[in-house]
Write a structure and sequence with these properties.
- The chain is of the alpha+beta class.
- It has one domain.
- The chain has five helices and six strands, in the order ααααββββββα.
- It has a four-stranded antiparallel β-sheet with strand order 1-4-5-6, covered by helices on one side. It has a two-stranded antiparallel sheet with strand order 2-3.
- β4 and β5 form a beta hairpin.
- The chain is globular.
Length: 190
């Protein structure tokens, strides 16, 4: 069977028009065209500080927090386990207003005598619905002693006042193992 060169040329030309005319083939996707559930808002001015928002959160001044409180109260749960609250005897309390992409810089590394842990170990790629340039309040509180590490964090949207991410952890430490390593190091130095 003989191939017709005119049909081959016409087919090639049509294929080229389809590829050139199809934006999926002809253009790379721009980051600006990504449809986020929480889009960029770093061009907007919000006057409330992180400390002011924290107090408003504790006082339940905003509708999302009042609704949250009602749901928790109906389930007879402690509100402090739902809305963020600093540890009263914390080693560190952080309240910061910034961009969502900046929260990764606040990871803290603790050692239990055996393993290093990173907390809160945030990766903004795990939250594809939130623009990295979205303004957020970041709250972080932890207690780091020789016996334990307790941490909690929360990220609230500056504009909507909704919680975007949060969590808590408890890591018991192994002081016996730590003491053993110290004794072993002292014996090695003698």
């Amino acid at each position: 069977m003989r191939k017709n060169p005119i049909l081959i040329s016409l087919y090639t030309l049509c294929s080229l028009f389809v590829i050139i005319g199809n934006p999926d083939y002809s253009q790379a996707t721009s980051l600006e065209k990504v449809q986020y559930l929480y889009p960029t808002n770093n061009d907007k001015a919000f006057d409330e500080t992180a400390d002011e928002f924290y107090q408003a959160l504790r006082d339940r001044r905003y509708p999302p927090h009042r609704e949250f409180y009602v749901k928790y109260k109906q389930r007879q749960r402690d509100l402090n386990n739902g809305l963020f609250k600093d540890f009263s005897n914390a080693s560190v309390n952080i309240r910061k207003k910034g961009l969502f992409r900046e929260v990764e810089a606040f990871n803290y590394i603790t050692w239990d005598g055996n393993i290093h842990y990173t907390y809160p170990d945030m990766d903004i790629k795990d939250h594809p619905a939130i623009s990295p340039d979205r303004q957020v309040y970041f709250f972080y509180s932890f207690i780091d002693t020789e016996m334990e590490f307790r941490g909690r964090y929360a990220i609230y949207d500056v504009e909507t006042k909704q919680i975007l991410a949060g969590g808590g952890t408890y890591i018991p430490k192994y002081p016996i193992y730590k003491k053993h390593l110290q004794e072993k190091g002292e014996r090695g130095n003698n």
